[in-house]
Design brief:
Length: 396
């Protein structure tokens, strides 16, 4: 059992996020001066949007539905709401793809994506066949997935803004498939993350959000090498106001829902120490940790005022992941953070999919939510957030 964390305000930060009163006054004066200069020279300057073009992902979602705020009473201009889901497989090209080409794949759940910034773990390349052969003919437990490049547009239309590549299927079609995925996402107006030493940065309601992907594989930021993990998080913290970690960690299976201290192994692979990793990246400057990889939901923890979702489970199976029972239970996590990254509130919406066709839909029985509430109480009785019967997430 871990000790209760210190209050959020005592959390040591590796960067300055708050301006002292004296500096604030000076800043206001400078703003006034800059305003005069701006007015006089506006015709000779590029627009502000162009200044941030290389850092900014479009944040408008495809759905006109207002954001289903985790807690409307606490949302202000100084907060942003981030959304996240776990593993996504949309199909298995060439012979097992949705009947409509994937255009309506997320229609039953996309209203839950109406947040300021929506993220998912893309558990397959988005590429044409590169000729890369991953599985030997004699392998019975090897899986190789991909969907065509056109599927990136379906992710965009559903409301996603960023997809993570740092997982055990991101390289299914080799280095060419990996870079093809990045191109498909970029061409669709989406951000990607996961490459080693790479930090994706987007400006969301005036707040810079950096997202870093981790896994146990050498092409990605390392879940195993905590020194490397700290270094890349510190770099992200220097670029962004809020730092989000996407991490594919932990052993796989329907019986792997509990989080315990120590390293987890799966098929001879070191899948990291989820607790040690999550605490280390928060110590280095991360504000939100989104876990996936076990293919089942896991509990949540608060550490130094920052939320850790140890696994959001499977979100979409696309005929590649088993569904229906516990492996088909997932959800959409919405978190409202203050401009300095502290958790204000959150909400978890349960989803489910059947093995075929693997399309996610809302779960009126809230099985995923019930499981997360139980696992949080079991594994983090002193450090877990409060989670209500209707999915509201709050501080202790």
């Amino acid at each position: 059992m871990t000790e209760p964390p210190p209050p959020p305000e005592t959390r040591a930060r590796p960067r300055l996020r708050r301006v002292h009163a004296a500096y604030a006054a000076l800043a206001l004066c400078l703003v006034a001066i800059v305003g005069v200069v701006w007015t006089a020279t506006a015709g000779n300057r590029p627009s502000r949007a162009l200044w941030h073009q290389s850092l900014t992902s479009p944040v408008a979602t495809a759905s006109p539905t207002p954001s289903p705020s985790p807690s409307p009473s606490v949302q202000t201009a100084n907060t942003i709401t981030l959304g996240a889901v776990g593993d996504i497989i949309m199909g298995k090209a060439p012979g097992s793809l949705p009947a409509d080409g994937g255009r309506t794949f997320f229609d039953k759940v996309k209203d839950l994506f109406a947040v300021d910034f929506m993220m998912g773990n893309m558990e397959q390349p988005i590429t044409e066949d590169t000729g890369h052969v991953k599985c030997r003919p004699d392998q019975t437990s090897c899986h190789q997935f991909r969907v065509p490049p056109t599927y990136a547009a379906h992710l965009k239309a559903a409301g996603f803004h960023l997809l993570n590549q740092a997982n055990n299927h991101g390289n299914d079609y080799g280095p060419t498939g990996y870079t093809n995925t990045q191109k498909a996402l970029t061409d669709a107006g989406l951000l990607h993350t996961g490459s080693r030493n790479y930090v994706a940065v987007a400006e969301v309601k005036g707040v810079k959000v950096g997202v870093v992907g981790f896994s146990s594989y050498p092409r990605d930021n390392s879940l195993i090498d905590l020194a490397q993990a700290r270094t890349v998080i510190e770099r992200a913290a220097a670029k962004a106001d809020i730092v989000v970690v996407q991490v594919h960690m932990g052993a796989e299976g329907s019986d792997k829902g509990h989080v315990k201290p120590g390293t987890e192994m799966f098929l001879g692979e070191n899948r990291g120490d989820p607790i040690a990793f999550s605490h280390a990246v928060i110590d280095a400057g991360a504000d939100l940790v989104i876990g996936h990889g076990p293919h089942t939901l896991r509990g949540m923890e608060l550490y130094k005022g920052r939320l850790i979702a140890y696994s959001l489970g499977n979100f979409a199976g696309g005929t590649g992941l088993k569904g229906g029972e516990i492996l088909g239970w997932g959800g959409v996590l919405q978190t409202t953070l203050s401009a300095d990254g502290a958790l204000v509130s959150g909400r978890f919406h349960s989803t489910i999919f059947q093995t075929r066709p693997g399309i996610p839909e809302k779960d009126s029985q809230k099985r995923g939510l019930d499981l997360i509430r139980k696992l949080t109480k079991d594994d983090f009785p002193d450090t877990g957030p409060t989670i209500s019967a209707d999915g509201l997430i709050g501080l202790h």
